[in-house]
Amino acid sequence: MRKFLMMAVVGSALAVSGCQMTQTERSVVGGVAGAAGGLAVANLMGANTNWTILTTVAGAAAGTLLAQNTRTGQCAYARGDGTYYEAPCP
Fold first, then answer.
1. Are 77 and 90 in contact (CB under 8 A)?
2. 10 Å Cβ neighbour count for 32?
3. Which are the contacts of 76, defined by CB distance < 8 A and separation ≥ 6?
4. Nearest-angstrom CA–CA distance, 77 and 19
5. Which CA distances in Å does 90 have to 6, 23, 69, 75?
6. What are the C-alpha distances in Å from 44 to residues 14, 38, 39, 52?
7. Residue 59, pLDDT score
8. What is the pLDDT of residues 40-59, one digit of tens each?
9. 8 Å CB contact between 66 and 51
10. Taking 60 as the threshold, does the pLDDT of residue 23 lie above it?
11. Is the dihedral of CA 36, 40, 41, 42 positive or negative?
12. For the chain, how big is the Rg over CA atoms in Å?
């Protein structure tokens, strides 16, 4: 529980500081935060080394994409047939 609380504090500090960042800085912070989240999930689930690496990389990719989408205000939505379209985020 202590690790979760510490991660929540760091995450909220990063989120608040994101208001004054450039796009590159926002992408880097998003990637680092996503990687940290993926690592935390792997540790909580008791994953082996391979799954830990995979969740960390996937978290970094998701965090970077999320940070980039906050700049444009556009999100990708699945149509259900394997294609996607972009529209304003809710």
1. no
2. 17
3. 69, 84, 85, 86
4. 25
5. 29, 21, 12, 9
6. 22, 10, 9, 10
7. 85
8. 888 888 888 888 888 888 88
9. no
10. yes
11. positive
12. 15
| Helix segments in the chain, DSSP class H | 2-17, 23-45, 49-72
**Distance (Å, whole) CA 35 – CA 43:** 12
The two beta strands, 84-88 and 74-78, are antiparallel
CA dist 21 and 16 (Å) reads 10
- Which three-class secondary structure state does DSSP give residue 41? helix
Report the length, in residues, of the chain. 90
In one-letter notation, the amino acid at residue 81 is D
Q: How many angstroms from the chain centroid is the CA of residue 37?
A: 7
Output 79 or 47, whichever has higher pLDDT: 47
